[in-house]
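In response to a reviewer's request, we include the raw inputs and outputs for one of the modeled complexes. The two entities were modeled together in a single run.
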Amino acid sequence: MTTAANRLPREFRSPQLRAAGVEFDVDKVRSDFPILRQRIRGRTLVYLDNAATSQKPQVVIDAVGRYYERDNANIHRGVHFLSEHATEEFEGARRKVQSFLNAADASEIIFVRGATEAINLVAQTYCRTNVHAGDEVLITAMEHHSNIVPWQILCEEKGARLRVAPISDSGELLLEDFDHLLGPRTKIVAVTHVSNALGTINPVERIIERAHQRNIAVLVDGAQAVPHLRVDVQALDCDFYVFSGHKVYGPTGIGVLYGKSALLDAMPPYQGGGDMISSVTFEQTIYNKLPYKFEAGTPHVAGAIGLGTGIEYVNGLGMDNIAVHEHELLAYATEIVSGIPGIRLIGTAKEKAGVLSFLLDSIHPHDIGTILDQEGIAIRTGHHCAQPVMQRFGIAATARASFALYNTREEVDILVKGIQKVREVFA
Amino acid sequence: MPDLRELYQEVILEHNKAPRNYRELATANHQAKGYNPLCGDHFTVYLDLEGDSIRDISFQGSGCAISKASASLMTQSLKGKTRAEAGKLFDQFHKLVTGRSPANGNKAELGKLAVFSGVSEFPVRVKCATLAWHTLHAALDGKRETVSTE
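The model returned the following structure tokens for the whole complex.
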């Protein structure tokens, strides 16, 4: 029988980390999240929709509030005290993100609205210059719509071709097929680090290595990875890495594009406006240096500060401790949920993070979601903005429980009881 | 707190399991597709209209228990009805599932459709209950286009 420990990805299996995992005090962690204290429909909230968005710890809520109470000012332009202070806080948040991703330089961290905007930015700048008629963009069959549609728009504009690497029945990328699709016309590979619908962890290091052998740039969509795994963009050697702040305990409306400075330098700007310029005349505009070239307009200062605080929060707990806790929880949930008669798991890759997608008999996931909601359990039901994944498995939708650092085994047990209730209603 | 049994009444569960008039209609002269992009539910409603009256009606597609049972019961309720009667019934049904029915109710006119009264306590499920009805509306309205495809 598979134990929780050996289901963990290789890097989490060291004895030291296992020991560290024991010290992870989930009750204490839960007390940091005020929203978890409330009752929903007369029951304690069991929040298992973390792949959609994570809840926020008090420190993040306070950081955003404090910014508006004490520090609010526009940045990068005022000579007054508050502007200077707000600028410091904002740039401090950038350095926190830099260190979180282990980027070589803070100027490689561009603040955007979220992973979606970051992908659109790369498609509309780097690729506007580098992709031409007849070229190819390679993605995988497990991408979120946000890592499909921007490339379709680009391909439509350029007369380029979108290629899709297939996945197996367990939801793993078929690497041989992927390698075969890397061709002389491939200009960029865009791949998710962790699948939002299936939970699959992609071997992005290997993907990047293969692509780089052919001088193809790689964008990694890390929206579902950064809350669960330690990410080192220099070790990965990815060209672009994107994520959303709200999935990693920060506010909504703030996200990050990491790009290698040589690439970012060569790219045309995304949006024109204030802050992204060095000087403007009606004859000529000189763009600002990195990262400001890509940050037109007043940014989401409070959001960036909140995200920086969210990153400090997970750093305080230890990314490795979080990964061990979550992987043990996922292994437990996988074992116990798959034991329920009539359950079919969608996404059974060997390496997974955070997500348990399932079907129950022929009961529609919407009905499962409504009944679980009555038990105070929040899950996502539907196609998870990954309709091609649903088509790959020949289904319309799944029910998805997704985990975060504050979830517990007791909550998994409540989920299981909830699923049994669904079976009773539809018996 | 809304009661699950009010939503998932026996009649609804039974129609979900064994939907009535669940087939393509060979004699259909009107049809339309309905789709809920939020959840992926999709149905096709087939109509055999003779003048102003619904001689036969059927549906096919996939969806949750509420949407499928609603489509099934709709087809049962509408067979033999006129356009105007169908419109009136939709109006009453819509009031029922959005909790805007008159105090004393119009359950007699709604007949079996009254089992959907529990939906009003679950606002996010109103779209499930009305998907087939909106599709019917499109089928009744889109006469020209539909005829050209047959």
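As requested, we also summarize the result in words. Residues 61-315 of chain A form a domain with the Aspartate Aminotransferase; domain 2 fold (CATH 3.40.640.10). The first strand of chain A starts at residue 39 and ends at 40.
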